[in-house]
């Protein structure tokens, strides 16, 4: 150690002992590993650029046409989980039994706990939505189900368009797609001029058979909540589907994984991740080049990629994908260059999920990493020339795959998402589902 003068062998020996004893040496090694990781990250992004907003709604990205307020968030949180607005079912038995949270609930990281989420016509919940099935009294053609896996609302504040094909959103990424905002379809909602989170929330109320009953709202427990959230809107227009959607969107923007270990590490807690996780982060921002797609605070980016993943399929599928579902972004933009490309999803809170990828064809984070490491398309219907140029072998070793898996599963996992869920609804209804089997599963009788 050349910064010590050899004036005293005793001092030198003492220093040597200090740096070689067990716990102290571990601490020293841990400290020395911090700088390489920060330097590696800062070759592609600043630490600040990766920080998720915390504590204050003023730091959360918002739609200029829908400023986030505490009052909107309170209302939106309740409406998102409210089974009492399930008032447009195709079968009377389904009335007041489902909600937005039926397919985007906290137990599954705000996505579905099964491969294909079911709204109206579903029965049961299990522990995390994994046992929900078609109600025996329903014709399968009547249920509310989508032909693509339900994406999470987590970190959606960091994207300007929504859905796997990005069809919702009137600004930024979707500038120039106006000709595809087809009248008479949910895409027409883009003409309102909002960003993706707001557009989807508004359109989703109708798509998923939810109804804002003006009379019920204005004479019930939600009246005060709407009044507080939209005090400047006239009474004639205040209790509307539009404002309900805007409140839900404001709430969705606050659902952020800011307490994940990686976020704590970025904010200066060097002990938030262990050595293996830090090595995984080095791979993420280095050899694995994961950051090229999974960028920004939400690690979701705003790009679309064709990785040759399978579409929804199997005996447990209730609605088969159409060619438009399979084409992804291309089906929306009508640009052949976009065929088979899907929006980059967030990597936060994937641990414990059994269905990943737009078709739910992967059962774990490690499976997806192995898939991308080999870069051999599993979907034979995707022409080779349509595969993304970045889809190529990574050359990761088994150890590196383990370390990268640890980083994604553990470091990007916020274990307190329950803070975004209401304890009780104004109506007193069960949620996220209120069908008989779900109430029994959730002990909400």
Question: Any descriptors?
Answer:
about 450 residues; mainly alpha; Cytochrome Bc1 Complex, Chain D, domain 2; 2 domains; 16 helices
Textual characterization of the structure:
The protein is an all-alpha fold. The chain folds into 2 domains: 44-55 and 260-411, Cytochrome Bc1 Complex, Chain D, domain 2 (Orthogonal Bundle), CATH 1.10.760.10; 57-257 and 420-441, Cytochrome Bc1 Complex, Chain D, domain 2 (Orthogonal Bundle). 31% of the residues lie in helices and 2% in strands. The chain has 16 helices and 4 strands. The protein has helices spanning 9-18, 22-32, 34-41, 70-81, 196-207, 214-218, 223-229, 235-238, 241-254, 261-266, 275-284, 323-327, 329-333, 365-374, 398-411, 436-441, and strands at 122-123, 133-134, 304-305, 342-343. The strands form 2 sheets. It has a two-stranded antiparallel sheet. Helix 4 (70-81) packs antiparallel against helix 7 (223-229) and helix 4 (70-81) packs across helix 9. The longest helix has 14 residues, at 241-254. The chain starts with 8 loop residues before the first helix and ends with a helix.
């Amino acid at each position: 150690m050349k910064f010590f003068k050899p004036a005293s062998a005793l001092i030198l020996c003492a220093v040597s002992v200090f740096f070689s004893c067990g716990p102290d040496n571990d601490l020293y090694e841990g400290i020395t590993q911090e700088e390489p990781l920060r330097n590696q990250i800062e070759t592609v992004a600043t630490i600040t650029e990766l920080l998720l907003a915390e504590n204050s709604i003023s730091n959360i990205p918002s739609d200029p046409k829908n400023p986030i307020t505490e009052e909107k968030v309170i209302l939106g949180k309740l409406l998102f989980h409210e089974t009492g607005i399930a008032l447009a079912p195709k079968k009377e038995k389904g009335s007041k039994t489902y909600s937005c949270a039926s397919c985007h609930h906290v137990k599954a990281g705000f996505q579905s706990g099964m491969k294909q989420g079911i709204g109206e016509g579903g029965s049961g919940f299990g522990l995390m939505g994994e046992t929900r099935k078609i109600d025996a009294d329903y014709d399968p053609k009547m249920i509310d189900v989508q032909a693509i896996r339900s994406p999470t609302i987590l970190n959606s504040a960091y994207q300007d368009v929504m859905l796997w094909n990005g069809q919702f959103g009137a600004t930024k990424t979707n500038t120039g797609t106006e000709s595809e905002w087809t009248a008479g379809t949910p895409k027409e909602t883009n003409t309102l001029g909002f960003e993706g989170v707001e557009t989807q929330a508004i359109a989703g109320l109708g798509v998923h058979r939810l109804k804002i009953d003006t009379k019920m709202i204005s004479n019930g427990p939600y009246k005060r909540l709407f009044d507080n959230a939209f005090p400047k809107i006239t009474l004639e227009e205040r209790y509307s589907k539009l404002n309900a959607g805007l409140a839900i969107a404001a709430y969705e923007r606050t659902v952020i994984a800011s307490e994940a270990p990686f976020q704590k590490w970025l904010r200066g807690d060097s002990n938030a991740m262990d050595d293996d996780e830090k090595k995984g982060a080095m791979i993420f921002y280095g050899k694995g080049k994961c950051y090229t797609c999974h960028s920004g605070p939400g690690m979701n980016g705003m790009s679309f990629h064709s990785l040759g993943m399978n579409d929804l399929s199997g005996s447990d599928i209730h609605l088969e994908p159409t060619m438009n579902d399979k084409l992804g972004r291309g089906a929306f933009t009508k640009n052949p260059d976009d065929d088979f490309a899907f929006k980059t999803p967030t990597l936060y809170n994937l641990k414990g999920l059994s269905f990943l990828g737009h078709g739910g064809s992967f059962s774990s984070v490690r499976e997806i990493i192995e898939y991308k490491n080999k870069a051999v398309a599993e979907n034979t219907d995707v022409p080779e020339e349509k595969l993304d140029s970045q889809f190529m072998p990574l050359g990761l070793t088994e150890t590196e795959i383990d370390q990268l898996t640890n980083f994604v599963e553990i470091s990007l996992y916020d274990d307190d998402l329950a803070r975004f869920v209401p304890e009780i609804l104004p109506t007193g209804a069960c949620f996220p589902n209120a069908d008989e089997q779900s109430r029994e599963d959730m002990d909400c009788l």
